[in-house]
Amino acid sequence: MSVNLENATPDKTVDARSMACPGPLLEAKKAIGSVTVGQTLEIMSGDKGSREDIPAWCKKTGHEYLGFLEKDGYDSLYVIRRK
User: Fold this and answer.
1) Cα-flanking dihedrals φ and ψ of residue 38, to 5°?
2) What is the H or E stretch that residue 57 is in?
């Protein structure tokens, strides 16, 4: 399944652009509980390590990692809560 992230409308956005690793991951862990199963969480991160951290966390926890979009100086990473 391919998702067009350009048109993604997250149910919640976490702004972790000012945080270094592991800040964005910790923010994602906190925020995932605030969306319901099937909803999308967007994590805005200025730390390139999030490109590996977030998918690894999703794999471990059973959430669905959709991918990331490179924006102006940061990444937007998208996760669907699956449980």
Assistant:
1) 95, -10
2) helix 50-61
**Which residues belong to the active site?**
21
Structurally, the chain folds into a number of domains equal to: 1
Contact 82, 65 (CB under 8 A): no
Residue 3 lies in a domain: no
> 32 in a domain, yes or no?
yes
| Phi, then psi, of 55 in degrees rounded to 5 | -60, -40
Find out whether 21 and 53 touch, Cβ atoms under 8 Å: yes
State the first-to-last Cα distance of the chain, in angstroms, to the nearest integer.
19
**Looking at the domain assignment, is residue 29 inside a domain?**
yes
**How high is the pLDDT of residue 1?**
45
Q: What CATH number is associated with residue 36?
A: 3.30.110.40
What pTM was estimated for this model as a whole? 0.93
pLDDT, tens digit, for every residue of 11-57?
Answer: 999 999 999 989 999 999 999 999 999 999 999 999 999 999 999 99
